[in-house]
Amino acid sequence: MTEARAVTWGQLASAAPALAAAGRKHLYQWDIGLAFLATVRADGGPRVHPVCPVISDEAVHVLVMAGPKQRDLLRDSRYSLHSETCPPPRHDDGFAISGRAHLVTDSGVRQRFAEQLVAERTEQIPWPTFEQDLLFELTIERCLLMQTLPDEPFPAGPTVWRA
Length: 163
Prior knowledge:
Strand content: 25-35%
Order of helices and strands: HHEEEEHEEHEE
Number of domains: 1
CATH class: Mainly Beta
CATH superfamily: Electron Transport, Fmn-binding Protein, Chain A
Low-confidence stretches: none
CATH architecture: Roll
Structural class: alpha+beta
Largest sheet: 8 strands, antiparallel
């Protein structure tokens, strides 16, 4: 089985800037990144967890603490990330990306992630368990933007983009 073509967040933003802007708006609608991360359990079933994604100009990253979600991603890198729900009247709106999660081992990338996390959260430490948690970059194979009402340049209904 071959893996689907995947892009980074920066490549998505270059290829589909309006879609990336809409996605960022959905993921950061509460001032920090909030989303649900779906992973694949060992038995093949889905597992869903809340996460705080961080979007830079180049990438989408998630910090994952030890436990089922981390084990899922280390065993099977497939994921789907979905924004929090919107308040009425647009409560059916949302943004999702799907693809593969890649473990980040580069200390420079991890440091830049920590700096961005501190800047977004205005805290002195980036995360209580930061040193023990694993950092993953989410590459994107597919995006889905769902709009209850038209919002230029997107019509009402689903907008699907594939890498």
